[in-house]
Amino acid sequence: MNAILDLGAQFSWFGCDNFTSSTYTPIPCGSRKCEIARGVGCQQHLRTCGASAFNPFQGILVSKGFAEDTLYANNQPVVKDYTFSCMESRFMEGLASGTNGILGLARTEISFHKQVVGKFKLPDKFSLCFPSSGHGKLSIGDPSLSTILGVSLSATPLIVNPVSTAPSYSVGDPSDEYFIDVKSIKVAGEPRDKISTINNYTSVHNSIYKPLTRAFVKAAAAIKIKSVAAVAPFRACFTSESISRTPAGPYVPTIDLVLPGNEVYWRINGGNAMFEVDRKTVCLGIVDGGSNPRTSIVIGAHQLQEKLLEFDLVSNQLKFFSSSLLIQGKSCSRL
């Protein structure tokens, strides 16, 4: 089956409507494994450790149970006793066509990468590389994908948000998601920044979005890029014919998220910055998150394309290629 990678999902769940397996084993209530999974209550009729499976595309929580089974992946070692939950197809609306579940990659003991590094005694780290087209790569442990690509990475601390951003949590729970500390965006703000594979585009607080788009439109006009009417959900849109092309995509002003350290920044440019609405129109691929978002900035999936990321939980750092790999003639699709 194909599954969606979710950096914010605490555990994996899959569609099980027609699922049969001789090695499937429910996790009992009150067991040590249920405690590790942070089970929610108990499914009394089955005496199974309770799981709150969340579909982020529908925004719904479904009361299910945790189980274990053997996980097989193409040309990879078998993962025995893999903890996950099931989900009925009626609660799976919104998932990309051809996918049948979510692979959780959050900071929990039963996320996909955490179970793999534990069972195979690997360093607690994983790398992601999403291509602009074709197939990308998820790598767990060593070697880093940066070694394979032959590129050097910048690094910034991973921040633990003391307030949970999960759909269901207890007061005092920290967040299981991945945050970095953004000092500025050239034009405004000192927010903390979440990285998401679920949001299509980067979303920023309204107080940041307005000056950011104004500055971008002004800088675009300075290099003779012509503005056109906005196309929802975007506000800064331009004529394609007024923009020249580079190996990394459209030649447009760069946006830098300035991070702690000396000359450490996350650069959004070219294809990462722009979304092609049609042949005649492209827009800045950043959206207004409103005046009361849970997180001031969420870096979305479009801005993760051709951007090698390594989540190093040994050193508690995010290591990343600061610009687009396409600038160096490389691509996530060629890993």
From TrEMBL:
Pfam families, alphabetized: TAXi_C, TAXi_N
UniProt superkingdom: Eukaryota
A GO BP annotation: proteolysis
Presence of keyword Ligase: no
Protein's UniProt keywords contain ATP-binding: no
Keyword entries, A-Z: Hydrolase, Protease
Gene3D superfamilies in alphabetical order: Acid Proteases
Residue ranges occupied by any Peptidase A1 domain in the UniProt entry: 1-321
GO molecular function: aspartic-type endopeptidase activity
Family: Belongs to the peptidase A1 family.
Protein name stated in the entry: Aspartyl protease
Lineage, highest ranks first: Eukaryota, Viridiplantae, Streptophyta, Embryophyta, Tracheophyta
